[in-house]
Write a structure and sequence with these properties.
The protein is of the alpha/beta class. It has two domains: 144 residues, Nucleotidyltransferase, domain 5; 152 residues, 2-Layer Sandwich (Nucleotidyltransferase, domain 5), CATH 3.30.420.40. 40% of the residues lie in helices and 17% in strands. The strands form two sheets. The protein has a five-stranded mixed sheet, with helices on both faces. It has a four-stranded mixed sheet with strand order 8-7-6-9. A hairpin with a 4-residue loop joins strand 1 and strand 2. It is globular, with a radius of gyration of 20 Å. The N terminus is likely disordered. The structure holds 5'-O-[(R)-(carboxyoxy)(hydroxy)phosphoryl]adenosine and zinc ion. The site of 5'-O-[(R)-(carboxyoxy)(hydroxy)phosphoryl]adenosine (KG4) has 19 residues, from helix 5 and helix 6.
């Protein structure tokens, strides 16, 4: 296999770790194939707070990180691992530090190289995994709970953002909308499910069109808030219609901007990644776009190990001083 950024030992066994938010994840990837991928979600733990509580997440990562790594190793041992890859940021700083410290300790203990991975690059790299890896160039819509970006990907490992959200991320809009509708956390999948029983044209939820290739989702959330307030006790009977209409508004905005970006950049191929790429209406609205399997849309460590194949590894002891970073900028 050849390609820019591909390192000589492409078939290395990479142990990936991901702890940037509320999923503790470990995976083994070998030459682009997922050997194992274990994700322990803390969603239930955070559900009663209606969102992720950073300190609670860090503590849970500490408890889960070693058992999750052990499960991912399965029949293999650390002796078989060639490289350790870990999410360095962006994300919750305390949560990231748990994964980064674990990765440093494992790598250092075995004299292995370590690859720090940008979580957003990881989402894009979920497209490079077997059995149907996508070849750049393509335009990628990355829509998750923390980010919503349009990224021009000229080659593997490259990442050129051309649009972003000015306020809420699309996943955040789903989560906040779900909360207003009295649905569980995380809300995207709940809205997706309920929307199937509702009429997407029942309510008009306008999404602000901002200049350029950026997004804005704070207005649509406020529109839902007013509608819910106005309906009062009648909300109960209209919940599915509200969910369907709200989802339709977010999906329309995502699709419109993505197609505009494709027109401007001349991209022939479009891909969607991140938790919101699991949304059934979004997938149906972009039938020609490539989307990873559902398990690789939401946070996982296989995508982190996949991204590591296109990043220079750091040899010991060079990585011991590495720090996590919270913000994408
Ligand atoms: O990529 P991800 O697991 O974590 C971040 O990096 O943020 O994305 C999580 C987000 C949450 O906001 C969740 O509500 C949303 O993805 N999500 C969905 C669906 N499944 C997950 N949004 C819409 N429809 C879905 N089916
Ligand atoms: Zn993510």
């Amino acid at each position: 296999m050849e390609g820019p950024g591909l390192r000589a030992g492409d078939a290395l066994l990479i142990l990936g770790l991901e702890t940037s938010c509320d999923e503790t994840a470990a995976a083994l990837v070998e030459g682009g194939a997922v050997v194992s991928s274990v994700v322990s979600s803390q969603a239930d733990l955070h559900a009663r707070f209606g969102g992720v509580v950073p300190e609670v997440a860090s503590r849970r990562h500490l408890e889960l990180v070693l058992p999750v790594i052990e499960e991912a190793l399965g029949e293999r041992t650390l002796d078989d691992v060639d490289t350790v890859a870990v999410t360095q940021g962006p994300g919750l700083i305390g949560a990231l530090l748990v994964g980064l410290s674990a990765a440093k300790a494992l790598a250092w203990g075995r004299g292995l190289p370590l690859v720090p991975v940008n979580h957003l690059h990881g989402h894009v790299a979920s497209l490079y995994l077997e059995p149907e890896p996508l070849e750049p160039p393509f335009l990628c819509l990355l829509a998750s709970g923390g980010h919503t970006l349009l990224v021009d990907v000229p080659e593997r490992g490259a990442f050129r953002p051309i649009g972003t959200t000015l306020d809420d991320a699309a996943g955040e809009a789903f989560d906040k909308g779900a909360r207003l509708l009295g649905l569980g956390y995380p809300g995207g999948a709940e809205i997706d499910r309920l929307a199937r029983e509702g009429d997407p044209e029942a309510f008009e939820f306008p999404v602000a069109r901002v200049p350029g290739l950026d997004f804005s989702f704070s207005g649509v959330k406020t529109a839902l808030l007013y509608e819910v307030r106005g309906l009062g006790a009648a909300v109960e009977a209209r919940r599915a219609d509200l969910a369907a209409s709200y989802q339709r508004a977010i999906v329309r905005a995502l699709v419109a901007r993505t197609l505009e970006a494709a027109g401007q950049t001349g991209a022939e191929r479009i891909a969607v990644v991140g938790g919101v790429a699991a949304n059934s209406e979004l997938r149906a609205a972009l039938p020609d776009a490539t989307a990873p399997p559902l398990a690789l849309c939401t946070d996982n460590a296989a995508m982190i190990a996949s991204a590591a194949r296109y990043v220079e590894a750091i040899l010991p002891p060079g990585y011991l001083a590495l720090d996590a970073f919270a913000s994408a900028l």
